[in-house]
Amino acid sequence: MFAIAGFTFVLIILGILAVLLLMSVLVVPQSDVYVIEKLGKYHRTLFSGLHFRLPVVERVAYKQTLRIKELDLMVATKTKDNVFVQVPVNVQYFVNENEQDIRNSVYRLSNPENQMRSYIQQNIVGSLSKLDLDEAYGSLHQVGLALQGELTEKIGEYGYVIKDTNVIDVEPAPEVKDAMNQVNTSERKRQAQILTAEGNKAAAILEAEAERDARRLRGEGIAQEGDEIAKGMKERIDKLKDAGLTADAAVEWLKFNDGIAVYTALASSNNAKVIMMDNNLGPNSGQPMTSEDITRSIIRADEVQGR
């Protein structure tokens, strides 16, 4: 009987030792750390791998992950021009892999996400209150960098590292969006009208310049034609002077001859029925012309012109 009792006692002792042995073994997963307290006080930090502890005396007080976490937040605020907007913000952060930083993350800050939410809210409200809505759209990157700097300063002392902050968008109320679209549409129409007006103006200028150049060219042509007529007239006068006429007589003869040429052309026209002739065309100025004068003048004009 005593042997059985002794054997049972040994089994109990062995069972207790086996349980204590199992309790002393700790396997810490990859990217995690365990904070060990001894009799209620921080004792050590265990990183990933196999570890042993004193059962009962030492306990796992905190399990902290070293993986990157994300915090998504929607901030409601208004811009400098009093437009109420919703601003979605994304923050990526992690615990620094340093024993002191790990201790700070579990002992100094009980709820890091709530603390960061408060800092994010304050920062975004303060930044956008200084910007108009249009300026806010163009400053999202700068606002994100400013937020990251402030979070790093405020949260860094608690062992957290801010990897990235993204101020994703500025979302005004639907009626504000509709109004902005109408303004943008009106502005695009105004710009199109300006471009059309400028095009019409340019076309009008080009047309005016073309008309000016055409008139100039016509004037130059008329001037050149006059020069040629004058040159031809001079040559004819020179021929008459060479034939023995004075300059005045040559001019009078050309006037008479050209007049006869005009009347001859009119007489040859199918529509010409009556020709009214000027008395001054006669050889004796101021004396009426006879048929013989007209005949002699036509014959003489043909001779002078070489026909």
Verbal overview:
The protein is of the alpha+beta class. It has four domains: 48 residues; 104 residues, Band 7 domain (Tetrahydropterin Synthase, Chain A, 2-Layer Sandwich), CATH 3.30.479; 69 residues; 60 residues. The protein is built from eight helices and nine strands. Strands 6, 7, 8 and 9 form a four-stranded antiparallel β-sheet that branches. The radius of gyration is 57 Å and the shape is rod-shaped. The relative contact order is 0.06. The model has no long low-confidence stretch (mean pLDDT 78).
Low-confidence stretches: none
Structural category: alpha+beta
CATH superfamily of the largest domain: Band 7 domain
Please indicate the percent range of residues in DSSP E strands (runs of 2 or more).
15-25%
